Amino acid sequence: MPGGDAEPPAGLAARRVGWETIILSWFALPASLLAALLLGAVMMLLLSVNPISGYHALFDGAFVGSYALGASAARAGPLLFVGVGICISFRASMFNIGGEGQLAMGGLASAATALALPGLPSFVLIPLVLLAGAAGGAGWGAIPGAFKAYFNVNEILSTIMLNLVAVQLMNYLLAGPLVDTTQNSTFGLIPETRLLPHSSWLPILIPGTQLNLGVLIAVLVAGASYVLLWHTGLGFRLRAVGMSREASNYAGIKVKRTMVLAMTLSGAMCGMGGAMLVFGSLAHRMVTDGSLTGFTGSDGFNGIVVALFGGLSPLWSIVSSFLFGGLLTGGDALQVATGVPPDLVTTLEGLVVVFVVSLEYMRRRARASSLAPASSASRDGG
Questions:
Q1: Rounded CA gap, 321 and 225, in Å?
Q2: Which domain covers residue 282, as residue numbers?
Q3: Number of domains in the chain
Q4: What is the model's pLDDT at position 79?
Q5: What DSSP state is assigned to residue 6?
Q6: Cβ–Cβ < 8 Å for 301, 163
Q7: DSSP state of 201
Q8: End-to-end CA separation in angstroms for the chain
Q9: Closest Cα partner for 92 from 217, 216, 256?
Q10: Choice among 8-12, 162-166, 176-180, 365-369 with the minimum mean pLDDT
Q11: Angle at 320 between CA 209 and CA 231, to 5 degrees
Q12: DSSP letter string, 246-308
């Protein structure tokens, strides 16, 4: 253009992509949550429930008072463990959908450890059961990782199938070798362990609340995972494999070993979440109703949403896990206050999932668009 006043088309495209990235990074996530809540309000109106009263009850039940905050934080702990695990595997482009099974394996391994070593003091037994939970989840995560790396088996399918195997193994152990035989029941034994040793319970940090040590450990693990991913050589290799396995292999990175390690670490995080579900529970025993969700509360799936809502960052997952923990805790208060069916809260969670997954798709498109002007300019310059 004469005078050089007009901005080149490449510059305009770069500015547009830059604004898209900013909007998707900072404004789209709150907008997704708001949209889900607005649709939830419409459903409440259809159920003849005042949405203002309903959401007031949800907010009070989740965030007002020390007990509510402690309950939300305790509910967020397992979600954060799973979310951090998902961040690690997804950064390596390994899609871990097996959090449910890995939670169960972690819970079983940690419960069996506590039952086998009841005489150990707390400062020994608590770290030991958490490590046992991590080992149980790590082993269950390594299986689909190895299948993917060495046999090219789709990890989404293998992790889902291993969830089904996990529920059967859990039902067998809790109804057989680990069952509490001291129960007095005329209708058969409940599939649960006996009361776990008091020295294995996660200590309550604030008396009169449900806030236990597991929440603090989850936050510390999230911080350590952030350092691992962005400030260590291992983290660089994980992210490099996630961006391009071919380029990583050309650079000398052991791609298959890294893929297995990513799923192993992811499973370990989920397994620690399973240990927290057992030793941070009010029952202080592992119990199931015959389904995985009877033990996990769907944390293995909700943790995926936590990770996506946190932008696949372990640090932001701390915030998103607390929000989702509050949603789950406040949902119980919403049901009690308004009489809405439990399915409404489940639907709210599902709406958030839909919006967050759609947002991740838009983010990927924006990232692809941001690379297009650069590659175009490179060709023009060549």
A1: 15
A2: 77-316
A3: 1
A4: 97
A5: S
A6: no
A7: S
A8: 22
A9: 256
A10: 8-12
A11: 110
A12: HHHHHTT--HHHHHHHHHHHHHHHHHHHHHHHHHTSSS-S-B-SSSHHHHHTTHHHHHHHHHH
**Among the listed residues 36, 63, 40, the one whose alpha carbon sits nearest the alpha carbon of residue 52:** 40
φ, ψ for residue 192, nearest 5 deg: -155, 160
Note whether residue 293 is domain-resident: yes
pLDDT tens for 175-203 read 999 999 888 765 678 899 999 999 999 99
Beta bridge partners, 287, equal: 192
Instruction: Say how far residue 107 (Cα) sits from the centre of its chain.
Output: 16
Distance of CA 232 to the CA centre of its chain: 23
Give the predicted TM-score (pTM) of the model. Answer: 0.89
Specify if 337 maps to a domain.
Answer: no
Nearest-angstrom CA–CA distance, 304 and 107: 19
Does residue 30 lie in a domain region? no
CA distance 124 to 126: 6
Question: CA 320 from chain center: how many Å?
Answer: 10
Please tell me the predicted confidence (pLDDT) of residue 1.
45
What are the phi and psi torsion angles at 287 (to 5°)?
-140, 150
Tokens of 235: 């983290």
Nearest by Cα to 349 from 36, 38, 44, 97: 36
- On whether the CB atoms of residues 347 and 40 are closer than 8 A, the answer is yes
Query: Is there a domain that residue 57 lies in?
Result: no
Distance CA 97, CA 299 (A): 11
Task: Return phi, psi of residue 204, to 5°.
Answer: -80, 130
Distance CA 269, CA 102 (A): 9
